[in-house]
Amino acid sequence: MQRPSVLLADDHRLVAEGLKSLLSAEFDLVGVVEDGRALIAAARQLRPDVIVADITMPHLNGIDALVQLKQEDPAVRVVFLTMHPEVAYARRALEAGAAGYVLKHSAPAELTAAIRAALAGKTYISPAVAGEVLRAIKREPDPAADPVAALTPRQREILQLLAEGRSAKEIAALLAVSARTVEFHKYQMMEKLELHTNAELVHFALKHGISEI
Hints:
The chain is of the alpha/beta class. 52% of the residues lie in helices and 12% in strands. It is built from 10 helices and 6 strands, in the order E-H-E-H-E-H-E-H-E-H-E-H-H-H-H-H. A 6-stranded parallel sheet has the order 2-1-3-4-5-6, with helices on both faces. The longest helix is centred in the last third of the chain and has 15 residues, at 179-193.
């Protein structure tokens, strides 16, 4: 019987190596990538049954990578393995279509349980945050509680690249748009978030897990 295939995405090599050891007994590990763009490319090529991904990764964070993957394949299944216990992160991930949300400090058995749940078409949330997350989802959305929700996927993508130190020209080349378009999105973000400088934008990206430096 063919084992379920899993693609790993984590920019911390020690974590990735540990996950390989943990999962190899039950699953077929088809690849390991270290950033969100590589994740999208590998998912397109390998078509894994489940993707296990970190949220905060270089070039494109895991949640925005999931948004792009869902646009191409609504059936894609992503389990996030993250250090972020904050409800805002979990809510953003689940609203993007995540099949699981597991904290990195949880018992290893939680991750395998989450992968099995994803394969069965279910959603798994670490018990440590599940109650609070479900209560938050049932409440009416509060834009002030998660200002990232005010940004479009393209704006988040540009914001992450800005926070990583790329120029408007570099971002334009990477995303196949004009530098003017990048500057327009930057202006729109500053308006929405009531920020005034590039430094404030970068601080916002770091504070809300869009990027890490």
